[in-house]
Design a protein that fits this description.
This protein has 12 helices and no strands. It has about 325 residues and is mainly α.
Amino acid sequence: LKNIKLFKPFEYLVKMYGIPSYNEIDPTSFFSISYMFLFGAMFGDLGQGFVLLLGGIILAKAKRNKILGGLLLRLGLSSMIFGTLYGAVFGFEDIIPALLMRPFENINKVLAGAVVIAIVLILISYIFGIVNKLKRKDIEEGIFGKDGLVGLLFYICLLTLIGGKLLGKTILPMETGVVIILLSIALMIFKEPLSNLIMGKKPLYNEDISGYYIEGVFSIIETLLSMLSGTVSFIRVGAFALTHVGLFIAFQTIGELIGTTAGNIIVLILGNIIIIGLEGLIVFIQGLRLQYYELFSRYYKGEGKEFNPINIK
C-alpha cells in the first residue's frame, strides 16, 4: 500500500478488513477522509479532541504504539475541528462561539445532515464499486448488479422519489420514477443472461433457471431493504453528536447537585475522562462499523495478498 503520510496509519484499519487486489482500488484515501469526518462529527469537542491529539503524539513517539498514536493524533485533530464548528470545549458550550451550529439546539438539522452525509458517501462507494468491478471485467455485477450501474440508478431514483415526498416537491415525476425503478429491477433480475449475451458466453444460465429467478426476486427485496437501512444507519452519526452533548449535561447536573465547588470540579473532570475513554471508544467502533458494513460491502473485497519480501541477512 502506498499512501501519503496523512493516510498512512489508516492502512492498519484497511488491512483488518483485507488487502486490495491488483485489479482493485486501494480504499485507504477515501477511508481515511471519510473516517476522520465521521469521527469528528460524532465526537466534536475542541478540548477533548486536544487530549486525544496529545495522547496520539505521546504514543506516536513510542515505537510499539506508532500506529495507534498516529490514528489518535489524526482523529483528535478532526474532533478539534468539529469542536470549533460546534462551539464545544470540554463539554462547555459557552466558552467559544459555534462557527456552524450547536447540535443540541438543532436536533432536526443534525439528523438530516447525517442522512445527507450517508447519501454522499454511499454514492461515492457505488462509483468505486463500479470501477472495481469493471477493472475485474465483471460486467454482470459492474453494470447490472445491485452495487453496479443499474443499482446506482435504482438508488438515485428511489432517493429522488422519497426525498420529493418528504420535501413536498416534485423532483422527478412519479410515473417516470416508477418506470425507471421497474426497468432497473428487471435488469437486475436478468443480469446473468444479459451479461452472458453481451460477452457471447453460453449457456446463458449457469444454474437451474427457475431457481435463478426465485433467488433473483428475493435478492431484489434484500437490495431494497439494504439500500434503505444502509442510508438510515448513518443517523447514528447525528445521534452520537447529540449523545456527546447530553452525556456532559448529565455530569454537569450531577456536579451541581453535589453543591460544593470542589465536588463539582471533580465530577466534571471525571466526566470528561469517562467521555474521552468510553464514548471515544464507542465512536471509534461505530465509525468502523459504518465503513466496513455500509461502504466496504458495496465496493471493496480485499482478497489480495500483501507483499512481504524475504530478507536474507
